[in-house]
Amino acid sequence: MAPVKKLYLPDEQATRALGQRLGSAARAGDVVALHGELGAGKTTLVHGLAAALAIAGPVPSPTFVLVREYEGRLRLWHVDAYRLADSDEALAIGLDECLPGDGVTCVEWAERIADLLPASTLSVSLATDGDGRSARVSAPDLARWLGEEEA
Hints:
single chain; alpha/beta; 4 helices; 7 strands; globular
């Protein structure tokens, strides 16, 4: 079982900062699975990750196009699996080309294509409550993502 760390994210800025932290640790071939209800902060986290990858310009949700690709320190594949029925549909549109890709792949609504994700995937589950957000972060190599002292 992969190690898990629970983090409190009091506001949108903290969610973005977590994304920046993860983006700073990211390497080519990494996959980040994002989970959470609508409005939980998945795209906000990707904004921070993209900033850490030195990606300029806006990084909108790919809900209607399914995949957006950005160039930076590493290529970022931003996937939104919300509209996909299952992994077969993801394969039919060629999504396997960026799982893992030559950069970092972030998948919103990753539970819809979970069987396509590699065992090394970093999983971030975001939840909202009255005081902000919380994140459950897990990965086989969690220490690399969060720092040795915090994993």
